[in-house]
Amino acid sequence: MKNLVLLIGTNPLPNYVIGKYFVEKGEVDRLILIYSEETQTQKGTKEYSEALKKLLAVSDYKFVSLRDVGNPKKIMEDLLEQLDENINGSIHFNYTGGTKTMVAHIYNLLKERYSDNFKGSYLDARTFKIIYDDGKVEPVDGDLRSHIKVDIEALLKLHLYECEQIQTWKDCEFSGVVEKIKEEVIEKDKIDYFVKWLEDPFRKIFKDGKDITEKKKKFQEHVKSDHVKSAVQKFEYETPDFIWNILDAFPEGKRINQGRKLWIPDEGVSNNDFKDRIDHTVEFLDGKWFEWYIYREISEKLKRKGLEEGKHFGISLKAKKNKDFEIDIFIINGYELTGISITTGTKESNCKQKGFEIIHRVRQIGGDESKAILITLMDSKEVENSQGDLSFITGVSEEKFIVYGKNNLKDIGDKVLGEVFK
Questions:
Q1: What pTM was estimated for this model as a whole?
Q2: How far apart, in whole angstroms, are the C-alpha atoms of residue 204 and residue 206?
């Protein structure tokens, strides 16, 4: 019998990769999963063990619980009490997970007890290979990312999350507008003009106050108020031709403009009709356009790489455990997760919080093997400062965290794929 022993920590992804690799090679007859019990001083990992067992689908398994992962004496007592003294066959102990104390004492006990039938290994997060104690390395061809494919549903389940939403390109309500923005803004280097217009007049008209895009009467009063009148005048008399082209690319029933004027509902328009016309359009122009543009630039390239949309990459990911979990765009290369956060922010101070968030979120479900990318509208100097500061503060290497700005937008698809498949 071939026994695979795994230490289950709070990041069970390496355990899944190791387990999946050896199960598919036919080298696992029995799983032995060692987890920590939930106490006041340590986090329990039994639920991760159960999720791992289900995903690996090995029928013969054994759970071993540890009362105190920091106490060598109790670790030994728990192992001696729960492990079979005479295990039939070989013992392969992969010690990637768990604490150093757990690894040291479990390794010594297993090696001493099972001697010639024992072998140890770990998963190297840098090379994506399994390193054995005797120096042997697997796989020989390529790395584990080309052997082990994890979809987003399995990755979330492994970390006890329930997936609530994944969108794909077919969910883009305004795909024609994305194309027009690429043509009129990105390719013609007019991003600064577009951002300035979005700040004033667009946001002053549509984002200055709650519910103004939901209540017709409130909107009618809003655009007549003294502090908004100047924004309405800018909208109607100072909006450049390329932005009118973008506004006209929206479906007729979703436009915030009527010709070259601001659309203001008359008395015959109901609240529901008013909201239905402008709500999604305002949300899109307020920032969603940028997410969909980035997604447009990478989605077809990822398909050509053999990744399946909705499983290995997608946009607007939402999941839930104790708290909501969101990532703007996710990409999984084999089992390596890349999370992308996208913001129309132009200032370093405003973008840093987004950087902290995406680093934290990819680590939550992707562990140390994951990468984080922040895409902004900052200039080159602020991009450089942000990447250096955030890498230093979080302890993430600059290979695992990348920041892009407005000067990278024309070839952003190639840049992102270059990082994902590095």
A1: 0.94
A2: 6
